[in-house]
Amino acid sequence: MVARMPHSCPRKRRTGRPRSVETDRAILDAARAALVDLGWGRFTMGDVAARAGVAKTTLYRRWAHKNELVVDAVAVLFDELELPDRGSLQADIEGVVLQFGRLLERPETKAALMAVVAESTTDAALRERIRTAIVDRQMRLVVLGRERAQERGELPPDPPDHDGARAAAETVGLIFDVIAGTVVHRTLVSAEPVDTVWARRLATILLEGLAGLD
Amino acid sequence: MVARMPHSCPRKRRTGRPRSVETDRAILDAARAALVDLGWGRFTMGDVAARAGVAKTTLYRRWAHKNELVVDAVAVLFDELELPDRGSLQADIEGVVLQFGRLLERPETKAALMAVVAESTTDAALRERIRTAIVDRQMRLVVLGRERAQERGELPPDPPDHDGARAAAETVGLIFDVIAGTVVHRTLVSAEPVDTVWARRLATILLEGLAGLD
DNA sequence: CAGTTACGCTACGGGTCGTAGCGTAAGAGC
DNA sequence: GCTCTTACGCTACGACCCGTAGCGTAACTG
């Protein structure tokens, strides 16, 4: 699915020439290609427009700033994330880690992700866009894996009361920060690959660690 | 200490007017102030020069690119990191987490760190500069904390052979990615504070997790 | 058909990067 | 003291990019 465009109203416009979805796709494809070829530093709106065979003004009718375009261009890659049931919490965590790792080793995401996060520190709207377009898609997997582990009895169920729900949300957030943060750091700062051996060790740490979290 | 300037030769220049160390400091101070006020996006070399009371060309005689200046400006903050012995591995990990957290909550680091990491994905020289100026300073604490835990008997000592040393280095790298990555993600992506409760939970996970790492 | 919106195109203002050239200031070595 | 060498300030500049304005045309709705 395509994320909400900034200039589109919630209520559908019924009249006039409609936006070309083909153009939408061409722009996002061109943006990813430009990220691969140029990285974030030399990525320019004019270049993306040329690659997409589209006027530069057409880009600005859809996205107010280039960082928003980049978020949407990269976000679709996070839709590919899924978490098949591998039978145990340990195996499921390894699966998530490897999925994040593979995604972050792609040059598009490697070039774009930290750049937009950096700009989001001084741009609340961008931070929200990143949250809904990218972060929530990752968090899904954590929530899903945790539910499965609870069904298997590997993790205790959440208390149904209000405090229990809040504690559960905090735990999910913590786990998510650990997994996503560690994989990002490994890939972008340490600049080393996320292979199966490393994923297994990280999964082991998390598994044992979660058991000790009262 | 001040990191190596890009235009300075390894062998000391003996003749001519020496670089003003006072100017060095003024520029780095101005750069941090500019990061606080403007963030990375509006940070400009001309602005830094004006704040430092210095010509813009003087900046470029010391740093080839603005990202390198920013790395050096932020790097000195990481010199403040230290790890007093708190008596147990659990307490020491909490200490590291809180230190990283406090550092990353400062607006200078928040604005600069991810920006330069993003640019380092397409700039090997910058990546190396980040490594020596920032990453190694953080890693120190992990190495130190681990050694203390081994002296206390909380962690098994490293085998003295070659494979043992390599495994130890990998483990240190993994722990470091977990701690630094998780704190960064918490601070910059989830945009939530690193408080003592959260630090304790993360430390607990790590402590239990390390125990289970064969 | 008319009305409305999307699109392409050109041109532009404002801003930043990073450099060149020149005259001057400040030390090192004699 | 003097000379040599380098740092510094200043001005100007080319190149590039962002994001916008204006206008004519295309496409779709009712």
Question: Any key phrases for this structure?
Answer:
214 residues, TetR/AcrR family transcriptional regulator (chains A, B), 2 domains, 9 helices, DNA-binding, mainly alpha, homodimer, Arc Repressor Mutant, subunit A, DNA-binding transcription factor activity (chains A, B), transcription (chains A, B), DNA-binding (chains A, B), transcription cis-regulatory region binding (chains A, B), Tetracycline Repressor, domain 2
What is the compact description of this entry?
The first copy, chain A, is mainly α. In chain A, 70% of the residues lie in helices and 0% in strands.
Could you walk me through the main structural features you see in this protein, from its secondary elements to its overall organization?
The structure is a homodimer of 214-residue chains. Chain A contains nine helices and no strands. Chain A is 70% helix and 0% strand. Chain A has helices spanning 21-38, 45-52, 56-62, 66-78, 89-105, 107-120, 124-152, 162-189, 196-211. In chain A, helix 7 crosses helix 8. Chain A starts with 20 loop residues before the first helix and ends with a helix. The longest helix of chain A has 29 residues, at 124-152. Chain A folds into two domains: 21-62, Orthogonal Bundle (Arc Repressor Mutant, subunit A); 76-211, Orthogonal Bundle (Tetracycline Repressor, domain 2), CATH 1.10.357.10. By secondary structure, the first copy, chain A, is mainly alpha-helical. Chain A binds a DNA duplex (30 and 30 nucleotides) through helix 3.
